[in-house]
């Protein structure tokens, strides 16, 4: 077998093919055809690994790989109707009304026409169908835009000769839509292009075929990552003929969701080779879909995974149909009403049987109520059979216990609430011209029940813009923050025993206009440092030389040095090098063994170039927590520059640095209090002999084939001793506006925030302090960092014991931090319960180095185990899994990434908008929906129980007290519009006061506004109201109040008129008292719903209507009876009495209850009224929260060390595999304007 050209292998279960026989066996695996049903269902055969042949679409298509089309929608044209109906019939009410419709089709038991159920049911199903269709249409439109982006694809053709032989392959790049790209295609990408599929890099425009990419779509990070092609394929370059002839046969791992790993190999015979060879590749040679090409003119790649198989979509998970807690509760309550209905109908049926047994025969004999002959023929015991049929007749009559319009009204309310969120101008981010968007219309009230928020860090809490804002050099501090102008600035310094530099008269940026290389996006606020640097202070110069030299950044400029930019593996490194650059020490150029620094001379006002020879780069890793660079200075001396964590470097400093070390420790604590990320800077001068001896040991370790990394670390340790301290840097990882204030408000609203980030532990903890997730008032912060199951278990048990020993004292607050390596064990089935118990008892939780799959697993664990409502918020593709797993998913539509937005339920541009989304829109939506449900059940019980009371006087014969049109219109015309308007617009407390008092939100978490008690109270209230209305009206008839006016006491239609008006008026007056936000529209709708009763009864009793009405209404020939009733004084007295008896006790109870046992909302309403009269200005929590400094004695972490850096570009630099010249040659010195 030909040897692989690297030490990489694929995996043990994916062996290298050794001979052509095995190759034939591999080809034998290719399926000849695929079951069409599997294709429709989105299924395909599963293989242990993937086979691809470059430029051979016929071969590749035989494997039935997915094409590159993606779909985030829930339906397609085939599944839309059946799938949507299936989801709708998960609602108990829809099943109930379907069964009811079937019963109404049986004429022997139905006293109502089936049309009264068919039309409302079709309307309910149709409305929901249209709404869900429109929602999904927007997803299809979004998918269409992505799938129809254009990309250059190599189109290969072969000329066929007369004898059938094929000529050489030729090809040219043509534009194709993303959705038409298939596995095995070779595509060409240019600078700033999005990567359409997972690609193996063949070649690129950069020397050694490097390719720089931005992964903002994946993880929200804007710092560049570097990838590269293999040396063998890089020789193809951009030659279309060579690309067309490339016929490598690839074997790769199967599709999976591991973003940080990729393994595969390919067999290829290069031109001039006698036989084919095998070449291994890994994730360093692969570009993932969703990333973006940066600073690379072009790159050619082979598609290995397309569409749903790509890594980013493998992390997306399956899109689930989400239902709210109220939705699920409503199903249970509807089921409870079904039980009440069945019990009521059973009792009524028994009453009817008794009546039939005792009195039915007399009515049959008189011919007044003759039995149906079909009934007599079908049953000998006609009483029993009649009661049996009567059971179903009463079931139909009393069906309004469960109103079919309930779900339609809910959909309208949710739609209205969604539009209010989408058009809220206070959720609009002007800087990016981005509005909030409710991407689903079914989850708005769930926003009012959130108990846990899971958030990404980078791009969600932070802007990922890092700037060096302070530093300490030789014990003296430089730089100011805006918070340094607060009153506690000097006090906090005194606590540390520090003499802080006096603040300038005002907070002002340093003017760097004298520096043509300065970056205006990275300001500094201390002119003193510039003055000291220009005066050639040697310690300050050494400090900034260290920043400009000790890094692995690759510089680049597009033909003009004035546009110098840096390709950094770490945003921290970029911030430090840019700080030196702004102050006149410019890192300008790099080669594999040299570095060019331009130093501004304030006397000559020119830049002087200094070339330094790079002798070694001791790259960063998370164990060493430091990096070093050894250079030969222009004077011939050898110096090691080092930067890293304070605890690591302090151990390696010389004894002469003791005093400075003590002072620097206090200064680092001061920086940490401001939430700044710190690094310590040091150096060491080496003799030629020392370096040569060390370099020999370094060379030997570098050539080692076993434990190479460990041996290199040991060699690094030898040289990084007896360092001389220079100072420390303090970097601000800029939070998004309003993040600390938002987190403080959420905490007061009893919402727990868990940060799930891919960053390393120190970075995450640092941001935790900056964002007020963690604070120094916490009694303890548990850090779980075990690397084995037993270690993690012991650490969790120790933390749990400490938590239990602290008792239930609410003043004791705790934080919890766990690394990704430990989390792997903590999420194990045996430890997950312990992990969740410990984390739940802590006020703040931060999970570091978390994979996308772990994020989704954590959310699912909390959601299922604690039965709480969860929200996940993020901005990158690595957040998609947790966004889909949570009850509510929120996407941050930032500058770059949109993957999270595409699968989210709500989206906006800044994390701070989450405060308003939850505390304002969430609470309003929950309040409105809770009121709506209480009122809806109340009004329908008040309506339906009238039939039951009427049954006591008609032998429970399933006769309706109301005429059919009123039954059909009660929930449409007379009572629905006011309650829908209340469900969309009502608010008990204004948005300003909701933000001022976040604890108002807790009512939604506890389900106070709508629960089983309020549900059954609403049913009881409805039954009592119907009882009062019915018997007040019936009493009037019983005592012949209307005698002498030509009325008959047994006239049912007159009774219908007498009872429906007070019923209509009472339920609408009741909603008037429930509504707390009155507008002109609300007044018109509420009063109009009562007044519309009058034209209705006049029309129904008119002669023209009687002439054209259906047969079943002609059975009641009461033409012009409405005029007779309305002209009678007793009708009005009867209505007023019923309204007074029903409404006045409710009013008295409500006012008395609010006075004796007021809720927080009641107290806030009183304050609102008082403040309006006094015009008192509001003070919000956000006005009290700033960059707070905690008492220094509470600090347990000495510093805020954080370095967002894995391994840098050291290997690329030292091996020479990078771009040698980044910009056009320019003069080494330039005349620049004076800083004065």
Automatic annotation (TrEMBL):
<feature type="binding site">
    <location>
        <position position="456"/>
    </location>
    <ligand>
        <name>ATP</name>
    </ligand>
</feature>
<feature type="binding site">
    <location>
        <position position="879"/>
    </location>
    <ligand>
        <name>ATP</name>
    </ligand>
</feature>
<keyword id="KW-0597">Phosphoprotein</keyword>
<feature type="binding site">
    <location>
        <position position="759"/>
    </location>
    <ligand>
        <name>ATP</name>
    </ligand>
</feature>
<dbReference type="InterPro" id="IPR006539">
    <property type="entry name" value="P-type_ATPase_IV"/>
</dbReference>
<feature type="binding site">
    <location>
        <position position="573"/>
    </location>
    <ligand>
        <name>ATP</name>
    </ligand>
</feature>
<keyword id="KW-1278">Translocase</keyword>
<keyword id="KW-0460">Magnesium</keyword>
<dbReference type="GO" id="GO:0005524">
    <property type="term" value="F:ATP binding"/>
</dbReference>
<feature type="transmembrane region" description="Helical">
    <location>
        <begin position="332"/>
        <end position="355"/>
    </location>
</feature>
<dbReference type="InterPro" id="IPR008250">
    <property type="entry name" value="ATPase_P-typ_transduc_dom_A_sf"/>
</dbReference>
<keyword id="KW-0067">ATP-binding</keyword>
<feature type="binding site">
    <location>
        <position position="855"/>
    </location>
    <ligand>
        <name>ATP</name>
    </ligand>
</feature>
<dbReference type="InterPro" id="IPR018303">
    <property type="entry name" value="ATPase_P-typ_P_site"/>
</dbReference>
<feature type="active site" description="4-aspartylphosphate intermediate">
    <location>
        <position position="456"/>
    </location>
</feature>
<feature type="binding site">
    <location>
        <position position="620"/>
    </location>
    <ligand>
        <name>ATP</name>
    </ligand>
</feature>
<dbReference type="InterPro" id="IPR044492">
    <property type="entry name" value="P_typ_ATPase_HD_dom"/>
</dbReference>
<comment type="similarity">
    <text>Belongs to the cation transport ATPase (P-type) (TC 3.A.3) family. Type IV subfamily.</text>
</comment>
<keyword id="KW-0479">Metal-binding</keyword>
<feature type="compositionally biased region" description="Acidic residues">
    <location>
        <begin position="15"/>
        <end position="24"/>
    </location>
</feature>
<feature type="binding site">
    <location>
        <position position="456"/>
    </location>
    <ligand>
        <name>Mg(2+)</name>
    </ligand>
</feature>
<dbReference type="InterPro" id="IPR036412">
    <property type="entry name" value="HAD-like_sf"/>
</dbReference>
<keyword id="KW-0812">Transmembrane</keyword>
<dbReference type="InterPro" id="IPR032630">
    <property type="entry name" value="P_typ_ATPase_c"/>
</dbReference>
<dbReference type="GO" id="GO:0045332">
    <property type="term" value="P:phospholipid translocation"/>
</dbReference>
<protein>
    <recommendedName>
        <fullName>Phospholipid-transporting ATPase</fullName>
        <ecNumber>7.6.2.1</ecNumber>
    </recommendedName>
</protein>
<feature type="domain" description="P-type ATPase C-terminal">
    <location>
        <begin position="901"/>
        <end position="1158"/>
    </location>
</feature>
<feature type="binding site">
    <location>
        <position position="875"/>
    </location>
    <ligand>
        <name>Mg(2+)</name>
    </ligand>
</feature>
<feature type="transmembrane region" description="Helical">
    <location>
        <begin position="1015"/>
        <end position="1041"/>
    </location>
</feature>
<feature type="binding site">
    <location>
        <position position="643"/>
    </location>
    <ligand>
        <name>ATP</name>
    </ligand>
</feature>
<keyword id="KW-0472">Membrane</keyword>
<dbReference type="InterPro" id="IPR023298">
    <property type="entry name" value="ATPase_P-typ_TM_dom_sf"/>
</dbReference>
<dbReference type="GO" id="GO:0016887">
    <property type="term" value="F:ATP hydrolysis activity"/>
</dbReference>
<feature type="binding site">
    <location>
        <position position="879"/>
    </location>
    <ligand>
        <name>Mg(2+)</name>
    </ligand>
</feature>
<dbReference type="InterPro" id="IPR032631">
    <property type="entry name" value="P-type_ATPase_N"/>
</dbReference>
<dbReference type="Pfam" id="PF16212">
    <property type="entry name" value="PhoLip_ATPase_C"/>
</dbReference>
<dbReference type="Pfam" id="PF13246">
    <property type="entry name" value="Cation_ATPase"/>
</dbReference>
<dbReference type="Pfam" id="PF16209">
    <property type="entry name" value="PhoLip_ATPase_N"/>
</dbReference>
<keyword id="KW-0547">Nucleotide-binding</keyword>
<dbReference type="GO" id="GO:0000287">
    <property type="term" value="F:magnesium ion binding"/>
</dbReference>
<feature type="transmembrane region" description="Helical">
    <location>
        <begin position="965"/>
        <end position="984"/>
    </location>
</feature>
<feature type="binding site">
    <location>
        <position position="878"/>
    </location>
    <ligand>
        <name>ATP</name>
    </ligand>
</feature>
């Amino acid at each position: 077998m030909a040897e692989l050209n690297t030490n990489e292998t694929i995996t043990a279960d994916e062996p290298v093919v050794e001979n052509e026989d095995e190759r034939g066996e591999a080809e034998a695996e290719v399926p000849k055809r695929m079951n069409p049903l599997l294709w429709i269902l989105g299924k395909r055969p599963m293989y242990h690994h993937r086979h691809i042949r470059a430029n051979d679409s016929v071969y590749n298509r035989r494997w039935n790989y997915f094409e590159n089309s993606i779909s985030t929608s829930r339906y397609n044209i085939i599944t839309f109707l059946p799938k949507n109906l299936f989801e709708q019939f998960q609602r108990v009410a829809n099943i109930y009304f379907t069964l009811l419709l079937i019963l109404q089709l049986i004429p022997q038991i139905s006293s109502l026409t089936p049309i009264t159920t068919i039309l409302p049911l079709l309307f309910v199903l149709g409305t929901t169908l249209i709404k869900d269709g429109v929602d999904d249409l927007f997803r299809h439109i979004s998918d269409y835009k992505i799938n129809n982006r254009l990309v250059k694809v190599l189109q290969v053709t072969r000329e066929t000769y007369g004898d059938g032989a094929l000529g050489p392959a030729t090809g040219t790049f043509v534009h194709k839509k993303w959705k038409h790209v298939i596995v095995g295609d070779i595509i060409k990408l240019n600078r700033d292009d999005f990567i359409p599929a997972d690609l193996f890099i063949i070649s690129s425009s950069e020397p050694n075929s490097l390719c720089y990419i931005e992964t903002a779509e994946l993880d929200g990070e804007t710092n560049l990552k570097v990838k590269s092609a293999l040396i063998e394929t890089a020789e193809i370059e951009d030659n279309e003929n060579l690309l067309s002839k490339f016929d490598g046969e690839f074997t790769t791992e199967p599709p999976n969701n591991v973003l940080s790993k990729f393994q595969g190999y390919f067999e290829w015979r290069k031109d001039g080779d006698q036989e084919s060879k095998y070449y291994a590749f890994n994730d360093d040679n692969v570009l993932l879909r969703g990333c973006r090409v940066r600073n690379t003119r072009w790159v050619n790649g082979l598609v290995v995974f397309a569409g749903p198989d790509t890594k980013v979509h493998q992390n997306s998970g399956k899109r689930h149909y989400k239902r709210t807690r109220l939705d699920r509760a409503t199903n249970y309550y509807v089921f409870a009403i079904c039980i009440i209905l069945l019990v009521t109908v059973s009792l009524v049926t028994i009453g009817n049987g008794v009546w039939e047994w005792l009195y039915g025969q007399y009515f049959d004999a008189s011919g007044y109520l003759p039995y149906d002959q079909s009934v007599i023929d079908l049953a000998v015991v006609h009483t029993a059979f009649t009661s049996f049929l009567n059971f179903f007749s009463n079931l139909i009559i009393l069906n309004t216990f469960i109103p079919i319009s309930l779900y339609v009204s809910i959909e309208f309310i949710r739609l209205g609430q969604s539009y209010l969120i989408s058009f809220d101008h206070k959720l609009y981010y002007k800087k990016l011209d981005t509005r909030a968007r409710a991407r689903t219309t079914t989850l708005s009230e769930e926003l009012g029940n959130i108990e846990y928020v899971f958030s990404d860090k980078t791009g969600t809490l932070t802007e990922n813009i890092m700037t060096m804002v302070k530093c300490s050099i030789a014990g003296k501090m430089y730089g100011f923050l805006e918070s340094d102008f607060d009153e506690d600035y000097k006090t906090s310094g005194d606590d540390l025993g520090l003499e802080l530099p006096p603040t300038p008269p005002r907070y002002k940026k340093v003017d760097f206009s004298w520096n043509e290389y300065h970056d205006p996006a990275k300001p500094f606020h201390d002119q003193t440092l510039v003055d000291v640097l220009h005066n050639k202070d040697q310690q300050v110069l050494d400090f900034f030389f260290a920043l400009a030299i000790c890094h692995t950044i690759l510089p680049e400029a597009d033909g003009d040095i004035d546009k110098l930019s840096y390709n950094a593996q770490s945003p921290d490194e970029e911030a430090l090098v840019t700080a030196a650059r702004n102050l006149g020490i410019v890192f300008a150029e790099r080669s594999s063994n040299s570095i060019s620094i331009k130093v501004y001379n304030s006397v000559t006002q020119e830049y002087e170039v200094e070339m330094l020879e790079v002798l070694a780069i001791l790259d960063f890793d998370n164990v060493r927590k430091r990096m070093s660079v050894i250079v030969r200075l222009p004077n011939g001396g050898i110096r090691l520059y080092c930067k890293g964590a304070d605890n690591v470097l302090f151990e390696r400093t010389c004894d002469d640095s003791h005093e400075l070390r003590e002072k620097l420790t206090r200064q680092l604590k001061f920086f940490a209090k401001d939430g700044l990320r710190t690094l310590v800077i040091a150096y060491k001068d080496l003799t030629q002999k020392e370096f040569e001896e060390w370099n020999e040991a370094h060379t030997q370790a570098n050539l080692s084939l076993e434990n190479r990394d460990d041996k290199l670390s040991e060699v690094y340790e030898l040289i990084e001793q007896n360092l001389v301290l220079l100072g420390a840097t303090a970097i601000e990882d800029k939070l998004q506006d309003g993040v600390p204030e938002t987190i403080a408000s959420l905490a007061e609203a009893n919402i727990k925030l868990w940060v799930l980030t891919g960053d390393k532990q120190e970075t995450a903890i640092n941001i935790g302090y900056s964002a007020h997730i963690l604070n120094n008032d916490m009694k303890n912060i548990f850090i779980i960092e075990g690397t084995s199951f037993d270690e993690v278990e012991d650490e969790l048990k120790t933390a749990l014991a400490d938590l239990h020993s602290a008792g239930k004292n609410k003043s004791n607050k705790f934080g919890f931090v766990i690394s990704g390596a430990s989390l792997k064990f903590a999420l194990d089935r045996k430890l997950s319960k312990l992990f969740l118990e410990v984390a739940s008892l802590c006020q703040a939780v931060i999970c570091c180095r978390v994979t996308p799959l772990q994020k989704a697993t954590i959310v699912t664990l909390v959601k299922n185990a604690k039965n709480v409502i969860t929200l996940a918020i993020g901005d990158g593709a690595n957040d998609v899994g947790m966004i889909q797993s949570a009850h509510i998913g929120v996407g941050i539509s930032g500058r770059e990434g949109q993957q999270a937005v595409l699968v989210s339920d709500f989206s906006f541009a800044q994390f701070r908008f989450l405060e308003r989304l939850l505390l304002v829109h969430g609470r309003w939506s929950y309040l409105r929906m809770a009121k709506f449900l209480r009122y809806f059940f109340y009004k329908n019980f008040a309506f339906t129980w009238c039939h039951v009371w009427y049954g006591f006087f008609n032998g429970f014969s399933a006769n309706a007290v109301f005429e059919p049109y009123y039954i059909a219109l009660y929930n449409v015309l007379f009572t629905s519009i006011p309650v829908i308007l209340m469900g969309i617009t009502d608010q008990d407390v204004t948005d300003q006061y909701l933000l001022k008092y976040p604890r108002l939100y807790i009512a939604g978490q506890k389900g106070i506004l709508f629960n089983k008690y309020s549900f059954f109270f609403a049913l009881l209230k409805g039954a009592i109201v119907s009882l009062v209305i019915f018997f007040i009206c019936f009493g009037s008839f019983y005592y012949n109040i209307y005698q002498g006016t030509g009325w008959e006491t047994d006239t049912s239609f007159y009774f219908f008129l007498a009872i429906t008006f007070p019923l209509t008026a009472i339920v609408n007056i009741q909603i008037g008292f429930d509504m707390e936000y009155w507008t002109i529209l609300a007044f018109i709708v509420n009063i109009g719903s009562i007044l519309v009763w009058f034209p209705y009864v006049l029309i129904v009793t008119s002669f023209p209507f009687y002439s054209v009405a259906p047969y079943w209404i002609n059975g009641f020939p009461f033409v012009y009876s409405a005029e007779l009733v309305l002209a009678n004084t007793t009708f009005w007295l009867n209505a007023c009495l019923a309204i007074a008896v029903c409404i006045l006790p409710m009013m008295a109870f409500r006012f008395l209850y609010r006075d004796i046992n007021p809720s927080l909302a009641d107290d806030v309403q009183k304050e609102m009224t008082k403040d309006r009269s006094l015009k008192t200005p509001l003070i919000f929590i956000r006005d009290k929260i700033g960059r707070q400094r905690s008492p220094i004695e509470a600090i347990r972490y000495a510093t805020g060390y954080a370095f967002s850096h894995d391994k840098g570009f050291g290997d690329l630099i030292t091996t020479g595999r990078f771009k040698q010249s980044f910009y056009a040659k320019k003069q080494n010195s330039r005349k620049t304007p004076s800083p004065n």
